[in-house]
Amino acid sequence: MINYNKICVFDFETDGSDPSFCSPVQIAAVMIDPIQLEIIKDSEFNINFKPECLDQNENFEYQTDILDFHAKVKGTSKDNVLSEWKKYPKQEHSWTLFTNYLDKYHSRSSKKSQFSAPIAAGYNINRFDLHIIDRLSKKYGNLNKEQRTNLFYPRDVIDGMNLIFYWFESNGDLKSYTLDSVRDYFGISKDGAHDAIKDVKDTAEIIIRFMKLHRNLSNKIQFKGSFVK
Amino acid sequence: MKQYQYSCGCGFKADNAEDLTKIEFNPKIENINLDCYRTWSLISDGNTKGVFQLESRLGKSIAKKLKPENIEQLSALIAVLRPGCISGDTKISISRYTHKDGRIRQKLIKIRDLYKKQNSFTTILSYNEKTGTIINNKVNSVIYNGQKECFKVIFNTHSNMYASNGRKQYRLECTDDHQLLTSTGWKELRHIQPGERVLVNKRKHTRKSKLGKRSFRTKCYHTYEYKCIFCDWKAGSLDVNHIIENRHHNNKPNNLCFLCPNHHRQFTEGSLNIKQVRALQKKHKLPKTIDGKWATIVDKVSVGIKDVYDISMKTPHHNFIAGDVIVHNCLEAMRDGKSVTNHYIDKKNGLESVDYFHPSLEPILKNTYGEMIYQEQAMEIAKRIAGFNLQEADMLRKAIGKKKPEEMAKVKQRFLEGAKQLDIISEQDAEQIFGWIEKSQRYSFNKSHSVSYAINAYLSAYTKAHFPKIFFASYLRFAKDKIDPQEEIKALVQNANEMDITIHTPDLRNLNKLFILKNNKIYFGLTDIKGVGDSVFDKLKDICANINLSDLNWLQVLFLVLDKINSTAAKGLIQSGSISFINKSRNSMMFEYGLISGLTKKEKEHLINGLNDFKDLGSGLMHILNMPRVNKNRKQIILDSINTLNNPPYSLEDSPEWIADCEDTLLGCSITCSKLDMYDISMTNITCKELKNTVLKDNLILGGEIDFINITKTKTGKNPGQEMAFVTMTDTTGSIDSIIFFPEKYKEYKNLLFANNIIIVKGTKTKTGDGLIVDKAYVAKT
């Protein structure tokens, strides 16, 4: 089975840690060519979202730890982070642009459908980012018959965290499964970490490396009939 | 009008030599130069896409091998090429399996899909005429035969042949020259009359067998011909006669026969005796079958011209199961392990000596190099050798065609007697010649038919050779009527590219519904874009009635045209390049179209009123902010749009790959860009088009996109039965279908060979000169 669907590596930065309630403040994405296993040139996507609570109430007060985290990542003060968030475009506007972007990368097919849509990929997306995607899809009417998002290919999801687990579950050297630990272990620079676009590019590189490794191995291993006794 | 002369000697009157849209051309055969070398070389090169009768893959390859030089040879080529065919939607029985309910069922696949996946199915189900069972049989090849008129045939397996019980009905779509197995042998559909019995596959899975519980009428129907054994009357309902005893004592098939009411009365009255009935009963018995069933043909109706296919099966079982009906396979007669087609080609090319069997046959068979191709030749031989008159000769043709043993015996006897009387040949030779005529009827064709086909084929090839642009424009216009229009458009555009004719993307300024030849350029029609239908086109025509599209800027097109039609059509127009006359990337057009779809009707009206004052969409949106009574929420939305315009979230440059993808999806093929433009193929030293004409033989490096892979098994060599591949590769100049990966190389590069992959191959030119034997293969890098 040759895969012709493009792979969309995406990541949300949010104003909270609970995917059921938090609002995205940034989404970034890149596309991987499924045949060449390379990041498609000029395929970066990056947009900010005005958090829902700030949209409804300009004077909403955030818990300090969330703002602390973002201030630390951006190298600025909490007030600056908050005033920046207030300037961001409305969620609906940014979401529409994201859906237009995904629409652009459907695979060549006679009929555009969910089955020609890109495959969702990222780091820890199964537990976090895909929940937000489903929530926003429900809010803006991007659902399929099963009430799941119709923006991505429905069958497959590539989660970098799962890949790391398969290869390192018996390796004590890796301290944890967070993206930061993996970056440390592989020797990837942490400059600009937790900015969605940097995280996405790093995740894409990791996924590409592992997929290439799998391709090489699968050509060398004799799978056919290997279970025949 | 001026007279313009071609190098081949053909001349036409035209307005302008550059723009041959208005020419004086009378397509009458007496006005056409039949010795035009331009036309003959086009046919001999196999460039026969769109040429009547020769556009199939088989037609192209045989035309290339035969290299016809005159109508006589073209007629013979068409005559040997004309197997009967099955329509593309017909389901073929592939194999049998046991369903979870315990019954044996058959796996089916459409013949069109079988053609596409030729390598996946090496065997399909076939009927063994000796044992009457269904068996697995090897497939030689599946052949596409172009488009032909098809007939829908309805069969019934009910004793009341007009009963409309769907479960007992079978349907088949095929050409009227396709052969079906009747109770009297193989017959072409055109010679089969309603009421005749044809062998179909027994549907074992439809219901449990009720053997023993069936009525005597059904038993009789499945054992005997449905006609009165005395008078062959079958116009109405027949009576089932019990020969000995009655329906309460003996309902075995041996005790039953069909009688018309008149003879039934005579039998019961005692004027007909049992001996007479027994003798005739045996004659009317249907041939024995185990896995088959004798169905009655109820109706035959034309269903129009369709794409047709055929299958060539391995000897000795020359049939397969299509739509649950046993049909004959491709009529390719074999002699000395070679088909008659190949004998003819080799003889014409001087690779095989021409033998006329007897000097007296030379004048008759000279034109076809000693091969009996036409039915008229058989008739002529009978006239010359056996002294047949024209009526008798026609009787001979009919008798052999219908394969009636009694008539055959009579004609044979008359033939041998006639030959003895004339004494031109010996008795032994006469027998041999008659046997030869008998065999030739499997493939021989009516010459008058064949010549008229050949003339039509020559006419279409002549037009293609002299006015290729007009030819392609008109042929592309009718591609919509094909089952797969996009596939047809792709093939035609590729063929046009090979002939250095560029097909252009649609242009909104032309406002043409279908393909058009304008200013010596062929343009796609607007309705050829996926998502742009007739209603959208009519709307566009109304909108543009009072507008000169060439004078409009992007904002005017956006608000005055695109915003007035549905979004699918608008996006289709942008992505297909219909608005590329405006100097702006398609991506940014799409982006801005997406932004304005969020504006309210009032805001749009405000923008339209001041369209001439705005430089771009950004300045227009800024103007909206100054509108009276704009609420805070709307202001925020407009501001967001302005910010996004100034700082777009993704690149708005057009990448060649994206354009190629869009055009491929919307138009059926990529026109402006190719996916190859993204890849570094600078190390190649040849293109697909150049490969055919190059004198270089070794170290040829070719780059392209894999279109199709045909995996076959080797038949000869050290280890026969190994897998090898024939790859079809496409680049911007054309395509080549014989990039050969022999077993060793196939094993090595198997993982690179999949559709749409861009590869670079290095190798040696094949002996025939139109292919490449691969030595090394690489993945192309971006």
Q: Please provide the ordered H/E string of secondary-structure elements of chain A.
A: EEEEHHHHEHEHHH
Instruction: Tell me the span between the first and last alpha carbons of chain A.
Output: 25 Å
CATH superfamily of chain A: Ribonuclease H-like superfamily/Ribonuclease H
**Strand residue content of chain A:** 5-15%
Biggest interface, chains and residue tallies:
A-B, 30 and 32 residues
**Whole-number count of domains of chain A:** 1
How large a portion of the residues of chain B is in β-strands, by DSSP E? 15-25%
DSSP strand count of chain A: 6
Rounded to an integer in angstroms, the radius of gyration calculated over CA atoms of chain B is 33 Å
CATH homology superfamily of the domain at 86-204 and 297-331 in chain B: Hedgehog/Intein (Hint) domain
What low-confidence regions of chain A span 5 or more consecutive residues with pLDDT below 50? Answer: none
> What does the main sheet of chain B amount to?
6 strands, antiparallel
Task: List the main descriptive attributes of the protein structure presented here.
heterodimer, A: 229 residues, alpha/beta, Nucleotidyltransferase, domain 5, 6-stranded mixed sheet, B: 782 residues, DNA polymerase, domain 1, Endonuclease - Pi-scei, Chain A, domain 1, 5-stranded mixed barrel, 26 helices, 27 strands, 22% strand, globular
General description of the model:
Chain A is of the alpha/beta class and 229 residues long. Chain A has a single domain (7-220), classed as Nucleotidyltransferase, domain 5 (2-Layer Sandwich). Chain A contains eight helices and six strands. Chain A has helices at 52-56, 64-74, 78-87, 91-104, 125-140, 160-168, 179-186, 196-220, and strands at residues 7-14, 24-33, 38-39, 45-48, 119-122, 157-159. In chain A, strands 1, 2, 3, 4, 5 and 6 form a six-stranded mixed sheet that branches. Chain A is globular and about 70 Å long. Among the domains of chain B are: 2-82 and 449-466, Orthogonal Bundle (DNA polymerase, domain 1), CATH 1.10.150.700; 86-204 and 297-331, Endonuclease - Pi-scei, Chain A, domain 1 (Beta Complex), CATH 2.170.16; 225-283, no CATH class; 335-444, no CATH class; 675-779, Nucleic acid-binding proteins (OB fold (Dihydrolipoamide Acetyltransferase, E2P), Beta Barrel). Chain B is globular. Chain B contains 26 helices and 27 strands. Chain A binds chain B through residues 2, 4, 33, 35-36, 38, 40-47, 89-90, 93-94, 96-98, 100-101, 104, 108-110, 112, 215, 219, and chain B through 486, 587, 590-591, 594, 598, 636-637, 640-641, 643-644, 649-651, 653, 655, 657-658, 661, 664-665, 678, 751, 754-758, 779, 781-782.
